[in-house]
Amino acid sequence: MDIEAIRGDITAERVDAIVNAANSSLLGGGGVDGAIHAAAGPELLAACRALRRTTLPDGLPVGAAVATGAGALPCRWVIHTVGPNAHRGQTDPALLRACFRNSLDEAARIGARTVAMPAVSAGVYGWDPAEVAREAVAAVRDRTGTDVELVRFVLFSDPVLAVFRAALDDPGR
């Protein structure tokens, strides 16, 4: 599996699936979640509402992942995951790692070969971007036996890009 990190707009990525740093309601929010919902259009919200009516009536738990169609985005699927919120005391790195691990497992389940991921929980959820980078890279490297061929971390700023590149350069991760 190839793993890379770039600075960019995840909503413009031409990959099979993008990962959405969602909230548990799946009904849109701010940051990456809001940008993805805005770019995808009403089809994404409709798909998320359908999940809430059927398989996820209580919302998506922290660390879990679920796929929907992508609406107007240039990818085929959106994989939604809920990151832990450090401001609410959700500071266990295992929860953070689960977001990335379960997103990759969901990508493999639906047949996605190329996946773009954001820095889940590094924004308004208060996690240190360097810790997010370490956990994300470790989680992806733990899943190298899947059919996913490319994981591209698509990051929103140069400082966050720098910590992800540092984590990728660390062979111990």
Please tag this protein with its features.
Leucine Aminopeptidase, subunit E, domain 1; 173 residues; alpha/beta; six-stranded mixed beta sheet; 38% helix; globular
Describe it.
A hairpin with a 7-residue loop joins strand 3 (65-69) and strand 4 (77-82). The chain is an alpha/beta fold and 173 residues long. The mean pLDDT is 95. It has helices spanning 31-40, 42-53, 93-110, 129-142, 158-169; strands at residues 2-7, 17-22, 65-69, 77-82, 114-117, 150-155. It is built from 5 helices and 6 strands. The chain has one domain: Leucine Aminopeptidase, subunit E, domain 1. It is globular. The protein has a 6-stranded mixed beta sheet, sandwiched between helices. Helix 3 packs across helix 4 and helix 4 (129-142) crosses helix 5.
Protein topology:
Layout: E1 2-7, E2 17-22, H1 31-40, H2 42-53, E3 65-69, E4 77-82, H3 93-110, E5 114-117, H4 129-142, E6 150-155, H5 158-169
Parallel strand pairs: 1-6, 2-4, 2-5, 5-6
Antiparallel strand pairs: 3-4
Helix pairs in contact: 3-4, 4-5
